[in-house]
Every structure is written in C-alpha cells, then in structure tokens.
Amino acid sequence: MNNIINPIKIANNFKLEQNEAAQAPKNKNFSEFFQEKLVEVNELQKDSQEMTADFAVGKTDNIHQVMIAAEKAKIAVNLTTAVQSKAIDAYKEIMRLQV
C-alpha cells in the first residue's frame, strides 16, 4: 500500500511545481509584456525580410521557408494590430463611463 501512495505524492509535487512555474511570469505588467511581444514581431519581420532578400539574390532556394517566414510575420502583425485596436476601444469605453 505504501508503494502506491509514494508515486501519487511525487505526482502531486510535480504538479505543484508546474503550477508555481506557470504563475511566475504573471508578475509582469501589461506594458512590459506588450513591449516584449512587439520586439518579437519586429524580429519576425526582420527574419522574413532577410530570407526574402536571400531568396531574391539566390543565396537560398527554399521558397517554402521564405513563405512560412512571411506568413508568420503577417500573422504577427495582424494580431498586434487587432490587440492595439481592442486596447484603444477599451480605453475609449472606459473614458465614456460616468462616475
């Protein structure tokens, strides 16, 4: 009976450690989080431009990777624009509230 309980304790400890690790990044505020994501979007755009330029001059012949990088950058920009729009809408809605 004791052998059965020990694995459960180990599993519970592992789950607790995962929960603590998942909660650690929540200490960032929204502006820091958004700033990091903007940097990531910028990097995706730069990578896409570099891969496109390399393909244009013949340094690479893998059109698939070029197209994937371009789509990743496009999706990231579209998502960033959508988040920006929602944030502005939320700000306007808050400003319309009467106290």
From TrEMBL:
<dbReference type="Pfam" id="PF02049">
    <property type="entry name" value="FliE"/>
</dbReference>
<dbReference type="GO" id="GO:0005198">
    <property type="term" value="F:structural molecule activity"/>
</dbReference>
<keyword id="KW-0969">Cilium</keyword>
<dbReference type="GO" id="GO:0009425">
    <property type="term" value="C:bacterial-type flagellum basal body"/>
</dbReference>
<protein>
    <recommendedName>
        <fullName>Flagellar hook-basal body complex protein FliE</fullName>
    </recommendedName>
</protein>
<dbReference type="InterPro" id="IPR001624">
    <property type="entry name" value="FliE"/>
</dbReference>
<keyword id="KW-0282">Flagellum</keyword>
<keyword id="KW-0966">Cell projection</keyword>
<dbReference type="GO" id="GO:0071973">
    <property type="term" value="P:bacterial-type flagellum-dependent cell motility"/>
</dbReference>
<comment type="similarity">
    <text>Belongs to the FliE family.</text>
</comment>
<dbReference type="GO" id="GO:0003774">
    <property type="term" value="F:cytoskeletal motor activity"/>
</dbReference>
<keyword id="KW-0975">Bacterial flagellum</keyword>
